[in-house]
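re: that chain from earlier
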Amino acid sequence: MQLSNRVLNRTLLARQHLLERSTLTTAEMCDHLVGLQAQDVPPPFVGLWSRIVDFDPATVTNGLDDRSLVRITLMRGTIHLVTPPDALRIAPHIQPVLENAPFRKGFNFGAMVGLDPDEVRAHGEAALGDEPMSTADLRAAAARCYPDRDPGAVVQTWLYQLPVLQTPPRGRWRDNSRPVWSRIQPWLGAPLEPSYPASELILRYLRAFGPASTMDMQAWSRLPAMKKAVTELGDRVRTYTDDRGRTLYDAADLELADPDLPAPVRLLGWFDNALLSHKDRARIVGDTSAPPLRTFTTNVSPILIDGFLAGMYKIFVNGGTARLCISPNRDWTKAEAAQVEPEAAALLAFQEPESEQVVEILAPGADLRL
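^ sequence. v structure.
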């Protein structure tokens, strides 16, 4: 069965809870999405606000404080907000990918080339120990261990080699404190679970992002052997093709969404999972060429109209006024602008409740990276 791009779009939005807000709890949403991208502090809050009815940001803050949620380096080597079970069972799959990176010539201009990885790891384990430690303190330890090397590169290597997570206060609502790091096991009081099958992880990916190709799976996870994982799933997956004849896999017990379902305006956080989790992003960016990922840096975030990328926005706060500035990627109709404005105003009120709030729709293509 061949699937149109619109079927893929509506199915993705439905599984991402972007067609209508969900009554799932914050932890349940994190589990369903296999974590939320959280390299920076605001995006997971925006992602949850866009997906959950009456989302309360205190649920994230409280979860980080009572350790029922954690911020940890996982898929694509970036920080994700996940529940402890996922931290313990996904990290063993990601660690080999992370550990191979620092000793290549392309890592920090070859800063770690020539060093023994096992020796570096041993120094990192001794430095970090069982108590949380700031990046500054880790840099000081790195400078003592390797005075002839860039301490920042040594610290980054340790953070790749040792399964670690970020502890509060960073990650709490509106708290952008510098990272403090802990080994996973002492923080969560449980060991990693290396027996968790990669095939189960991929099945969960399909439930949140499918149907998808093996290239999509690899782009999401950066893990090898996707075809092997799919084969292990056997009849738990079914296959389709897209309009270019590529094979797509999906959980066998899930239905596809009706392509005629209405899709409300959604404002997402920068680097939201829905934008980053496929090699071919046409199902959400539309038929135009996908914007480079650097477009979403410096707090510039996507707006979806009728389910597809239709522009970018950024919030500027100055002198007691919060401005949500929007740069459409094409000419919007008056009806489209009228749909965007209330959703933008609601998000701005959520993020900057103490400021005077202004929504501005700029000319198409206006540069927001200021």
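The longest strand covers residues 308-318.
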